[in-house]
Amino acid sequence: MEDLEETLFEEFENYSYALEYYSPEADLEEKVHLGIAHWASLVLYCLAFVLGIPGNAIVIWFTGFKWKKTVTTLWFLNLAIADFIFLLFLPLYISYVAMNFHWPFGIWLCKANSFIAQLNMFASVFFLTVISLDRYIHLIHPVLSHRNRTPRNALIVIIFVWLLASLMGSPALYFRDTLEFDNHTLCYNNFHEHDPDLIEMRHHVLTWVKVIIGYLFPLLTMSICYLCLILKVKKRSIVISSKHFWTILAVVTAFLICWTPYHLFSIWELTIHHNGSFHQVLQAGIPLSTSLAFLNSCLNPILYVLISKKFQVHFRASVAEILKNTLWEVSCSGTVSEQLRSSETKHAHLLETAQ
Predict the structure, then answer these.
(1) Could you list the residue ranges that cross the membrane (predicted)?
(2) What is the model's pLDDT at position 242?
């Protein structure tokens, strides 16, 4: 049994680092460095949760329940839903990191948590890409946009994006597994237990699919859309606010900062199959890059919605309406209470007079 566990852990150590960093064999200096990196990533996870839950909840509340359903509000609503669902599961991963990568929640939550993370990554990136395409077509090809840009067509695109994101995240449901070792339960990618070539092939295929479809294609699409938008706006002398320009720049920059390290480390991780000298760097770098990518879930509502003048106007109006209704209810409640107290006082006074 011990030989089997050693074999499984050796395969785990050599071939599956995407979300697993537990290393019982590390020396004291390594553990100090890894501990600092892991606690730094833990802070970023907590920051993403604390900022992302209320930020995305506000977007969902207003775009889903308070405002008129338009193509733009549908994009923002589904983008916020993707980020919000992921952030609801984030405490499980925070606990995993805080407990030194011990997973006590069972195999099904291991699979579900990883699937939700992948679903969020692809759905969020795909919706950002759709928003970029929509803005380009809406401003540069207004006739085409007016003819086809309807809530019904937007719903078709939204369903397609969710199905595609689910398909891209589905390997996590199949490959994620748990392994007990050294009083730790690890949640990891079990590509195969005994065939190193099959493990390497599956790892390479899934990583490159994730990088190409979940990073390079969206980044290229967003960059081309926004670059063409800026060039054509200048060429046609179309009025565009400086705030809109900086919003576009902030969106692309945030995407680059949050996702580039994650995918670079994912590619670098593939070298583990041929060179084991980078274990320590990967064990420290992958948690940090993953937490930075997850931080994008709380930046999306800020960059795409909260800094928009139109959103701010709607937000203030909605908040003012809520406060007005609340104060009205309190006022009415207070008036009723005063009337009751006045009635009780008069009733008591009449009883005293009668006596």
Answers:
(1) 36-62, 74-94, 114-133, 154-175, 212-233, 245-265, 285-307
(2) 55
How many Å from the N-terminal Cα to the C-terminal Cα in the chain? Answer: 92
Give per-residue pLDDT as tens, 108-160.
999 999 999 899 889 988 998 998 898 888 888 888 888 888 999 999 999 99
Q: What is the pTM of this model?
A: 0.78
CA distance 122 to 116: 10
Q: Which CATH superfamily is domain 1-307 in?
A: Rhodopsin 7-helix transmembrane proteins (1.20.1070.10)
Q: Which of these, 233, 59, 37, lies nearest to 135 by C-alpha position?
A: 233
Residue 215: strand, helix, or coil: helix
Q: Where are the domains of the chain?
A: 1-307, 309-354
Number of Cβ atoms within 10 Å of the Cβ of 309: 11
Give the whole-angstrom CA distance, residue 246 versus residue 317: 25
Give which of 310, 297, 194 is closest to 254, Cα–Cα.
Answer: 297
Phi, psi torsion values for 339, nearest 5 degrees: -65, -40
